[in-house]
Write a structure and sequence with these properties.
Ketoacyl reductase, seven-stranded parallel beta sheet, SDR_fam, 12 strands, alpha/beta, 347 residues, globular
């Protein structure tokens, strides 16, 4: 009898602790997901003059935020600023090379002096280099790491003192499904996005105690119009063809405005991570549950990609063919017109 009472007591104690634990977790989740209003908040977006960055700037302005964008290209930046001014609200544009920590410090200081302390930092600036690994140089890898790892770190360190002082803030790191699955012919891009995911995850864990929420965003392909400004090596026309067609087709790619809305929703809630798009979600799950299968699939895909190791670099706009001007890329070309991706200077 005593033994039975002991067992029932143990079950009761375990059930009590389990219920308390679940209640605590639910309470913490509710606290973490307290909604943030963007009205009258200062939002800084790197790489905000075109593509996803410009789309995010529009949507933050529509939410009543004060928006600052930065980019390197003066002419592209000026067109973006003119568009944002026409939307109303308060916006500013600052020329800045985000791979230079001195310029980043100066840019953040100018934004804070003009618009106030940064409430939301969106580390969005990025580049894409496509081609076989034999065509890539150490400089290609360094360039990718500079823009995808060091630049977000510089910007984050520049806004952190004010955020910590006020014990509030949001930091958004735009990574990629390429930071979860390393895709053939995009190795510098994937390696640097993996690094950004690691940086972002670590910052989320450490900065939560200061009231700062860090969100890692891993979207799949999205129709921003960016392929024409990506860089291609090897058989550059062939590389541009597979990339631009994939980037344009519904099912493989996602409407960029919809992606931006999902990002804003995740930032409002303070989510730790958001995978955007069904292909990205499926890819991440399969990579976690079946890494060998994923590796075999990527190796299979690689065999059907162009195999030319020429190191010469071309922009997508220099790699057009009848295929990439066909109906297959129509949605991406329309997106390029909407999102300031045309007429970007070639370097």
């Amino acid at each position: 009898m005593a033994e039975r009472h002991k067992k029932e007591s143990s079950r009761f104690t375990f059930g009590t602790f389990a219920a308390a634990g679940i209640g605590t977790v639910m309470g913490l989740r509710a606290l973490r997901r307290s909604s943030l209003s963007f009205r009258d908040k200062t939002v800084l977006i790197t790489g905000g003059s075109r593509g996803l960055g410009l789309i995010l700037a529009r949507q933050f302005l529509q939410e009543g935020a004060r928006v600052a964008i930065c980019a390197r290209e003066e002419s592209t930046l000026a067109r973006a600023r003119a568009e944002l001014d026409a939307l109303g609200g308060q916006a500013m544009a600052v020329s800045c090379d985000v791979t230079d920590p001195v310029q980043v410090e100066a840019m953040v200081a100018e934004v804070q002096e003009t618009l106030g302390p940064v409430d939301v930092l969106v580390n969005n600036a990025g580049i894409i280099q496509a081609g076989p690994i034999e065509a890539m140089t150490l400089e290609d890898f360094k360039e990718a790491m500079d823009i995808h790892l060091w630049a977000p770190l510089y910007a984050t360190l520049a806004v952190l003192p004010e955020m910590k002082k006020r014990r509030q803030g949001r930091i958004v790191n735009i990574a990629s499904i390429g930071g979860k699955i390393s895709v053939p012919h995009l190795v510098p891009y994937s390696a640097s996005k993996f690094a950004l995911v690691g940086l972002s995850d670590g910052m989320h864990a450490e900065l939560a105690q200061d009231g700062i929420q860090v969100t890692t965003v891993c979207p799949g392909l999205m129709r921003t119009g960016s392929p024409r400004n990506a860089s291609f090596k090897g058989n550059h026309e062939g590389e541009y063809a597979w990339f631009s067609v994939s980037d344009s087709l519904p099912g493989l790619s996602m409407n960029a405005e919809r992606v931006a809305r999902k990002i804003l929703a995740a930032v409002r809630r303070g989510d730790a991570e958001v995978l955007v798009g069904l292909p990205a979600k499926l890819g991440a799950v399969v990579r976690t549950l079946a890494p060998q299968l994923t590796a075999a699939l990527m190796a299979f895909v690689n065999r059907y990609l162009p195999q030319d190791s020429s190191p010469e670099r071309f922009k997508g706009s220099q790699s057009e063919t009848p295929l990439t001007r066909s109906w297959l890329t129509e949605l991406s070309r329309r997106a390029a017109e909407r999102n300031n991706e045309n007429e970007v200077p070639i370097h």
